[in-house]
Amino acid sequence: MRKVLLLITLALAFTACHRDIVFCQFASIPSGEWHEDAMASFDYTIPDKDADYRMLIYVRHTERYPYQNMWLFIDNGARRDTIEFYLSDDRGQWLGDRHHGFIEMPVLLEENYQFPDTGIYHMTIQHGMRDSVLRGITDIGLEIRRNGKE
Q: What predicted TM-score, i.e. pTM, was given to this entire model?
């Protein structure tokens, strides 16, 4: 009986943690080499224009990535942004979480964003580094989560 209650509790907790995710998808970077003209492209549907959303970009990379930081160009059709973030600290230690041979770094793009309307949106992400081929990048992800009411 205890095992059944534990399983039900874990299932409810897992569901509660993920019920606010509206979109989560990764674009694979072939051979871990991100070419300067290649874009990670995402199409997603926003169901509620009155909700606040949290948007995260995920960068998965290997230890072959040669730099401490990264620049990205983000285009959502209405606005083009340039962001910079760090993948390692001053001593060269990776800041993200390690998973099966790669490091995953979440980057906050928007904290309390309200979309102007419901419907389908499109976003592209392109690296803004000086290298024409950026080595060590395996995947780029986008997660959109509805913020909980406090």
A: 0.83
